[in-house]
Amino acid sequence: MTGSSIVATVRAFVDTEVRPAAPALEHADAYPHALVMRLRQLGLFGALVPHAYGGLGLDVGTYARIVEELCRGFMSLAGVLNSHTMAALVVLHHGTEEQKRRLLPRFAAGDARGGLCLTEPHAGSDVQAIRTRARRDSGDYVITGTKMFVTNGREGNTFALLAVTDPAAQPRHRGMSCFIVEKGAPGLHVVKSIGKLGYKGVDTAELLFEEFRCPAGNLVGGVEGRGFAHVMSGLETGRINIAARAVGVAQAAYDDARAALARGGQAPPALADMAAGVRAARGLTYWAAGMKDRRERCDLEAGMAKLYASETAHAVAALALRTGGAEALRSDRDLERYYRDTPLMIIGEGTNEIQRTIVARGLLDRYGERFAALTSRDSEADATREMVLAVRVFADKEIAPLASQLDADPARLAATVRGLGDLGVLGAVIAAEHGGLGLDARTVVLLVEELARASGTLAALVSEHLAATAALDGAAHRHRLPALARGEQLAVLLDEPAAPASIDADGWRFTGPAIAPTAGVDLFVTPVGESMVALERAAVRLGEPVATLGLRGLQLRALALGGMRIDAAAAASAAPLQEARRLGRLAVAATAIGVAQAAFEAALRYSQQRSAFGKPIAHHQAVQLKLADMATGIAAARLLAYEAAAEDDVAAALAKILATETACTVTLEAMRIHGGYGYTTEFPIERFYRDAAHLPAALGGNDAERAAVARRLARGNR
Fold first, then answer.
1. Going by DSSP bridges, is the β-strand pair 176-182/204-215 parallel, antiparallel, or unpaired?
2. Residues in a beta bridge with 162
3. pTM for this prediction
4. Residue in 236, 301, 336, 349 annotated catalytic
5. CA contacts within 13 A on the Cβ side of 638
6. pLDDT for 664-683, tens place per residue?
7. CA–CA distances in Å: residue 26 to residues 11, 321, 467
8. What does the angle CA 460 – CA 686 – CA 492 come to, to the nearest 5 degrees?
9. Is 349 in the active site?
């Protein structure tokens, strides 16, 4: 079977067997024996075990999809599988060949039911603080100590256990070793099953080891002192696993909330935020899983996925609970279970507070004060990568040094934008036969983000131009496209209802004003009814420039259109308008991501240059927590925009909502990190902050966008 067919089989299993059984099992806190047997029959206990040892040999991405599906039905069931899989991976990646041949087939068949013995009563996220001892005695190791929160502790029989073999070793982790502990010998006691808020049905136990004898042949790898590295190496997969769990629970909560609305009731705007969060969390999770499968370093990315997905799952569950009202609080409803389950992902595999410090340290170690953190384009096609990097160089050299001047001088802004015609940016969405590049929407998102890192104002004007050129893809206007592609003319799109109009015997008559950027703009493109018209600047009466909070160089003006008439023959079909609007939303999202990225990079550099209390502020936990959340939020928004580029206008709207709200949050956090300097015009942070404020208001505003999208989500199958 292929990975996709296995995922489809698991999805059907969840829908037909898991979801119907989950409520009774959960409320009785009963171990799901029948469902676990089905996991064995499906071969899932050997999901990541290679074929050579009797497993399915799946990649991490496929395994994450399986975990997501299981958690969509019953998160506890995935817990049985995940702890087992982590124990098997310790043997697979670090065991001797004899250990692999002896143990992996049993893990794959489910005969050996695995778990992890890491946490102790006084040692959670700080694994190096463990006290469990293992001393060599002839052909055995004698283990003494207590392990807490052992999933499968009662029902399982084969555990990966970390213990201290050399108490004098410095640093302490060099004196730790990993063992495969099998039940059967005297001295291993299940002290108790631990009651929990949620995550019921799966046994979570406290295990006591009293002079328990473990064969020396079960020392993983056959060498002492390597156990800490053995268990830490599995954390990337473990965190991806937790992220996938969170996505599954979040999806279930979102699905149940939407199903309740389908039975009656008005769709709350928060439904759009829920959908955006679930999609973004999934994007981060499979981004990290893909890197793991390509054997790329992904400790940072896996941590970000776990952090974002777990926080999102809790937020979505809480919103779904509120959406459901008092009915959702009943214990015979699934929503209250999701709300109880989600805190586990916030805590598991290292609490999110610890996770944030790890992410921040990873950012500092990997990127330091360099630009473009987390924006590698190495995975792009050659042509796309070359185009994006060319724009990056232009933005860094020709735009960024002039960003403040571009805000103050609209003529200079327009001239700089026209210079992008030589790179082909202005003709990005114009077909090659009309002088453009005919790029796909995802590449456009990449390009606009690069421009916005240098100047939000310039990126906003380019975005307007690209949306207008997409709207002009009709027979009556195609003669204009070559000049627009070369930058000889600039255009903006006046979307409805900015320029209301009616038709009479003499053609179209405009009945109201419009507000639009005018810096260097030659054409104002607007839909009128079912048609599209292009208004020459000379024919439009322009009001005085309107002072704005941010994006100042756009030179917003009122366009006095009342009484203007356009010959009906000059209008072209408005059929391209929907695509132009979709592209416009994606471009706003990309602008927001670029502005947020610029603010984050500035904060990352400043945090290493500025010292307080004798050390760089980047070493203060409060700053690390902010940096981690900023980077994670930007990465989630970026991946959602990439995904939306290949989808419909609803996906584009979700990307725009998430990205613009993220930009507002990140720019404020960057100001907090800069302190007083961030509030001054000597630093660019205040400009980023001002520019970000405009983006949620673009294209009708996020509140209206949320309401419209929520109505469509409630009706549709998403």
1. unpaired
2. 178
3. 0.94
4. 349
5. 24
6. 999 999 999 999 999 999 99
7. 20, 18, 51
8. 10
9. yes
